[in-house]
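Batch manifest, entry 17 of 40.
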Amino acid sequence: MLEETDADEILLAMPSTSRGRRRQILEALEPYPLHVRSIPGFMDLASGRVKVEDVQEVDIADLLGRDPVPPRQALFERCIRAQVVMVTGAGGSIGSELCRQILANKPTALLLFEHSEFNLYSIHSELEARIRRESLPVRLVPILGSIRNADRLLDVMRTWHVNTVYHAAAYKHVPMVEHNIAEGVLNNVLGSLYTAQAAIKAGVEHFVLISTDKAVRPTNVMGSTKRLAELVLQALSREVAPHLLHDDQPVHQVNKTRFTMVRFGNVLGSSGSVIPLFHEQIRRGGPVTVTHPNITRYFMTIPEAAQLVIQAGAMGEGGDVFVLDMGEPVKIAHLAEKMIHLSGLSVRSEQNPQGDISIEFTGLRPGEKLYEELLIGDNVSPTEHSMIMRADEEHLSWNALKKLLDELLAAVQRDDYERVRQLLREAVSGYAPEGEIVDWIHMQRRIEP
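Output type: structure tokens
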């Protein structure tokens, strides 16, 4: 058929077909020099994210071939329906998708807490249009603020009587945090502490931390700060803790907030992820850059991750760490090859020197691992949801953690990154940094006379 038509492009008009079936079709088409694109699905049209006339590049999720498990509606609604919900980092990749799905479950109010004015404007405009279009009875409140401002957090949570917080705000780009250690620690650790303690003071019922597989035996600062954020919530869930780390007059309050942590791997198409980069590199004619031939990552779509985060958060009993089933890890080099082929191009290599686009290996970046893990230990148990597991992991007492946090923040204020690294090693199980410290301030001071 392809030989008869001499086609050079194929449009897949099958948005309702299962992802597994679409993967089979794409694998069958991959050997041919065809540009494969797809017609958008009904849900994308209904959400207003794409129009009928839009033709899209193949959804990378189709290459992975995993069909999402339908949500359990009772879990989905438990912490949202008829409640006041707040999302920190509401304009980010995960935060914005959480907001979209929360909106569909009819909270009385949804607070978008975000430090980036443009990101806040973007998600607020999108959701406001949807509320008008669907006549949703939800009050939408866009709030500019930083999670490092404890007073602002507490003021917002008390003023709106927040019931549920989804804490997605964090610095997540591994090399960027590796070069900016102080900001990584202050935002990911102190910001999470302030957000959690504001929740306790305001009487928030449910608090869900968005964590990462990079928190497991990390080789980088970002992963270790996210594990430290998990430890903060685990400690607060077991102790009566003061409102602020450095209060002159600490106020002790019974902790009624149920803290839950949800850990998962990479999400497809998130800001700073490899997929948009590959698309752009292919569009420009290459090369496509991959850090290492053997590097692998777990992947999940943003909607599926957000859906599972909401359901896992509803199952928590206090101090729980939930791990999402990410499926099989994907070799990034193989993913790059598939994307090149489905763009109707061929890979240039020693075996095919006349190919269109080469793949270049650039070397692992600071703090980057060849593979990621989701569990620190082996003590894991199933839950009522087939895609969510509960991990039973070690934790620190609040008193031990508070002492370590005091020392960590003092080291950050002195720009003593050797000491910061040492303290992270002491606190985070399996933290094994590789290579020299590459913080920009640290390196500049070393070369100055």
